[in-house]
Specification:
mainly alpha, 53% helix, 11 helices, three-stranded antiparallel beta sheet, two-stranded antiparallel sheet, 267 residues
Length: 267
């Protein structure tokens, strides 16, 4: 079965032109497994984590952000959206997650989170996330579907043609959907003002802005990877205070992940 994603050229409904791109169940499954390795090294225990220095839990193959009650940080929260997506697909959530239509993370601090890693709630949630890897990948694909209109709205009209061109240069490669789905969930669309250091972002928009070529195929993927490394290195250099030291240790891992964009093709 093919899953159709409609990717829009423009964010203005009156002049909207779209291109349908299909993904098979096998392709969605491949993308989910690939992102699982990228985020968690394929380890089940990593599907539920809370990194040192952060004020939120990271869950699932996309490490979807989940804030405790009353806490909203600079990064976009996505785990409650994933839960709503599951419900829209008729998937029954673990009973303790059904108590609210938009539940907050029940653990208020990283220390409390770690203390409860072997609790019944955690065990049930971890099993649930293992069993729903393909649906998590589909959720990520749906996020990509909405990314281009968001990015085009965020840039001046004279920049839209460049963003569209670079976006579709990547889409139209053998592994392009994996690359874009992975990056937009890895580092966001790049449209939020809160997700910037010194006014400079590191999301998909900034990567596309940093691309310059017009060649197709592997050249497009190489250009994307180069622009992504530049954007992420700039993020580290612009990070404030302690954040810079914390994020510096992640850069080699980020670069390794970026290199998968040119090292493997979707079969």
């Amino acid at each position: 079965m093919k899953i159709i994603l409609t990717l829009f050229f423009l964010a203005i409904p009156a002049s909207c032109y779209s291109q349908d791109i299909s993904l098979s169940n096998e392709e969605i499954d491949w993308i989910g497994k690939k992102i699982f390795v990228n985020e968690c090294a394929g380890k089940t225990e990593c599907l539920i984590s809370w990194n040192a220095g952060e004020d939120f839990a990271s869950l699932g193959i996309g490490h979807f952000i989940w804030y405790p009650e009353g806490k909203k940080g600079v990064f976009d929260e996505s785990f409650p959206e994933l839960l709503n997506f599951f419900k829209s697909k008729g998937i029954e959530l673990p009973s303790w997650l059904q108590e609210s239509s938009n539940p907050d993370c029940p653990w208020n601090t990283r220390e409390e989170f770690i203390q409860n890693l072997q609790s019944q709630k955690m065990i049930i949630l971890r099993r649930f996330l293992v069993d729903t890897v393909p649906l998590q990948a589909l959720f990520m694909a749906n996020r990509l579907q909405k990314a281009l209109p968001k990015m085009l709205k965020a840039v001046p009209k004279e920049s839209r043609a460049h963003i569209r061109q670079q976006f579709y240069r990547v889409v139209n490669t053998s592994s392009g959907m994996y690359v874009l789905i992975d990056y937009v969930n890895f580092k966001g669309e790049g449209v939020l003002q809160t997700e910037r250091y010194k006014g400079k972002g590191w999301g998909l928009l900034q990567v596309l802005e940093g691309m310059e070529g017009s060649e197709s195929g592997i050249k497009a993927l190489q250009e994307f990877s180069r622009a992504a490394e530049i954007a992420l290195t700039r993020r580290i250099n612009n990070a404030p205070g302690e954040r810079r030291e914390q994020e510096q240790r992640w850069l080699p891992v980020w670069k390794k992940r970026i290199r998968t964009y040119t090292g493997e093709a979707l079969q």
